[in-house]
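Sample pair:
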Amino acid sequence: MGVVVTDGTTERTYAWASLRDLGVVDLTTDIHCVTHWFKLGTTWQGVPVAAVLEDAGAADEPYALVSSYGGYTTNVPVEDLVDRDAMVAVGYEGGPIPAEHGGPVRLLVPHLYLWKSAKWLREIRVMPEDEPGFWENVGYHHRGDPFLEQSYYGD
């Protein structure tokens, strides 16, 4: 198993262990759930999404559809993946990410609501057009910025 990064014409698969070869960084950040809970000062270890997309040669499209093992999907503008602290997380609080929290590898986009941080990461597909994911298809906001209270479509 691993993480596939594709732009629809080229594809690169990273074994979970080999992601670390791209350079693991530490990040201390707050996380926010759309149900109004948050956790301050969480510590994560991972590879910046910008580094993964660059290594795969897949950073030239404006949108991404992120998929999980189990079928979950979420859409994220590539700008939110490369211009901020988004990472392919491989560790949490100094240890492996527990399975119930998306381990062994999950996406972390800390400046957006957690539904954008897909657990059990399987694929990052960059695309020229936006394609809604699971929660976006049932009325959640396409971006999900907690500081702008973008919970539902139209917020």
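Residues 8 and 41 are 37 Å apart (CA to CA).
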